[in-house]
Amino acid sequence: MNLIIICLLYVFVISECQICEHMTYHEHSQTCIVLVQHLAKHAEAESYCRDLFYGGHLVHILDENTDTFIRGFLNSTTDKALIGLQDSKKNGHYTWGDTIKATSYFGWAFRPHIPSPSYSTAVATKHGWMEFGNSPANFLCQTQPLISKPVLKCPLLKEGESNASLVCEAWSNAKSTILSAKMYGATGQWANCTQDNCESELGLQSSLVVTPGKVSLTTKMNDVRRSDAGRVTCTFYLRNDLTSSASYDLKVY
């Protein structure tokens, strides 16, 4: 009964707090990660992450950057933690969760790694990953990405074109966290927007639209010139000083 009360209270706290509250932001993956110091078996831990952390999961370590980052959570008190890697369906055929095939990066503590049919889950340690049985352990939860990298749609304009639109889009899983957006081009700041207002150093018309699952920053180019060609950078700003930014080459023909 006490555990149920604690869990319900935690759900309330998570839903009311700002993004990544009580968690740590990992810029490389655009996710929040937390070490849960509660002993649970793999399936229970996966369910815990999914239910309490924005539809999350046990951490997926897809590259060395993320691997190095999560090792920072471990110490002499908590020397290992469950991660999302498993080979429960076939020994040696590893997946992150149930569906994402693990192919490009492995951080095993001992190499070459020889899969054991006696173990189907894995833990991270300071020295690398180790296969693990179905015993309870602390675990690492990871949210879904808060926002994707912005994509500049159709970065190709025609000289002299009027009312041409440049659109930067990103996927977002948290509508309320998008605070503002900016677009810089070769000739200066083209857009500086909140959801209520937009400004431009060059007097361009812009808009920021946030809908469930997507955010779009649109800037209208009144008279496209050759000088507009060059680097275009789009940046979305979230709460807690989080950002997502990407740059593209705009061409004018």
TrEMBL record:
<dbReference type="InterPro" id="IPR001304">
    <property type="entry name" value="C-type_lectin-like"/>
</dbReference>
<feature type="signal peptide">
    <location>
        <begin position="1"/>
        <end position="17"/>
    </location>
</feature>
<protein>
    <recommendedName>
        <fullName>C-type lectin domain-containing protein</fullName>
    </recommendedName>
</protein>
<keyword id="KW-0732">Signal</keyword>
<dbReference type="InterPro" id="IPR016186">
    <property type="entry name" value="C-type_lectin-like/link_sf"/>
</dbReference>
<feature type="domain" description="C-type lectin">
    <location>
        <begin position="28"/>
        <end position="129"/>
    </location>
</feature>
<dbReference type="Pfam" id="PF00059">
    <property type="entry name" value="Lectin_C"/>
</dbReference>
<dbReference type="InterPro" id="IPR016187">
    <property type="entry name" value="CTDL_fold"/>
</dbReference>
